[in-house]
Design a protein that fits this description.
The chain has 356 residues and is an alpha/beta fold. It is built from 13 helices and 13 strands. The strands form 3 sheets. A 7-stranded mixed sheet has the order 3-2-1-6-7-12-13, sandwiched between helices. A hairpin with a 2-residue loop joins β12 and β13. The longest helix is centred in the middle third of the chain and has 22 residues. It binds 6-O-phosphono-beta-D-fructofuranose (F6P). The site of 6-O-phosphono-beta-D-fructofuranose has 11 residues, from loops. Its cofactor is Mg(2+). Homodimer or homotetramer. It is found in: Cytoplasm.
Length: 356
């Protein structure tokens, strides 16, 4: 019988369980005697050799469940950076893959995970990736599972903030997750009818942000909704290295981009301003119908790749087709929002300001 492992690594997101289920159900359909092993807590479990023998029933009732039944961890990362060429860890993972007698390992994760997946693939292991992340920043796929659920939750946050903003005539600054890429903030901002969207791909000028807020006030709408990606920065900060930027902010007594923007708006406009940080709220809970469908398609396609003996790849969606890319093409890249993206054009055409 064939024996496959599944692991989930990096930050969790809705749709991981639906994907695991998709892989498992499709495998059992194709090869009823397949043995499935669940690696505990991502690569951490692979390094330590911690795993569970899974039963078919373990994959029932998990389609709607948030998070991951297998557990996850950021290992082998430090401060979001992979410990590159960490020979020991890679050797340990390889050793445990062999000990577990796996014919293939399915790896569900984001950019960091794909880097590690590629390292393992280069070591000769049979790896199939599945692209998860609320950030939607994996190269080579139009969409990742988890993203649209997160857009939905972010939008609910913005909707609720809208009514209180309007009652109090305040500027509400809402921070949306996304340290590198602004996809989630962009889509949430458009869906929630934000007035200003600030993302890392478009460094902002606080004067322009304030102008947009003042323009609204002048037109009689006394409140504004600003959605900010965690990783946003202004044109001055754009010239700095990440570390330098962090040091400068610390000296200003401010740790996050959002807190800085709130202060800048208050100082420049005098508007009463409040900050909202939904944080991991956006990542929790059950996947949307869209993500359940996408996760199922991805999982089933992954099982198909296994049965055809195609490894060293990761599943993707391009122009509504489910396809696969080579791990070596995906590893180490980030899919940023192009400044001429159609959705940026849409937002601008709706009168939304990017503060540029
Ligand atoms: O990659 C997903 C993500 O939620 C990012 O949007 C965010 O910057 C980061 O993870 C938060 O990481 P953690 O869950 O480790 O705090």
């Amino acid at each position: 019988a064939k024996r496959v492992g599944i692991l989930t690594a990096g930050g969790d997101c809705p749709g991981l369980n639906a994907t695991i289920r998709g892989v498992a159900k499709a495998l059992y359909q194709k090869m009823p005697d397949v043995e499935i092993v669940g690696v505990v807590d991502g690569f951490k479990g692979l390094i330590k050799g911690e795993y569970h023998e899974m039963k078919q029933s373990d994959f029932s009732g998990i389609l709607t469940r948030g998070g991951t039944i297998l557990g996850t961890a950021r290992t082998p990362y430090k401060n979001m950076k992979i410990v590159e060429n960490d020979v020991d860890k890679v050797a340990e993972m390889k050793g445990n893959y062999k000990k577990m007698k796996l014919d293939c390992l399915f790896v569900l994760g984001g950019n960091g995970t794909h880097k590690t997946a590629n390292l393992l693939s280069e070591e000769g292991l049979n790896i199939i990736g599945l692209p998860k992340t609320i950030d939607n920043d994996i190269w080579g796929t139009d969409v990742t599972f988890g993203f649209h659920t997160a857009v939905g939750i972010g939008t609910e946050v913005v909707d609720r903030i809208h009514t209180t903003a309007s009652s109090h005539k305040r500027v509400m600054v809402i921070e949306i997750m996304g340290n590198k890429a602004g996809w989630l903030t962009l889509y949430t901002g458009v869906a929630g009818g934000a007035d200003v969207i600030l993302i890392p791909e478009i460094p902002y000028d606080i004067k322009k942000v304030v102008k947009a807020i003042e323009r609204r006030a002048a037109s009689g709408r006394g409140f504004s909704i600003v959605v900010v990606a965690e990783g946003a920065f202004d044109a001055e900060e754009a010239k700095m290295k990440k570390k330098e930027r962090a040091e400068k902010r610390a000296a200003e007594g401010i740790t996050t981009a959002t807190a800085r923007i709130v202060r800048q708006i208050e100082e420049s406009s005098g508007s009463e301003t409040r900050m909202v940080v939904p944080g991991h709220f956006i990542r929790g809970g059950e996947p949307s119908a869209y993500d359940r469908v996408l996760a199922s398609q991805f999982g089933v396609y992954g099982a198909e790749l296994f049965s055809r003996g195609i490894f060293g790849v990761t599943v993707a969606q391009q122009n509504n087709e489910i396809v696969h890319n080579r791990l070596s093409d995906v590893a180490g890249k980030t899919k940023f929002v192009p400044v001429n993206d159609q959705m940026i054009f849409t937002a601008r055409s709706l009168g939304i300001s990017f503060g540029d």
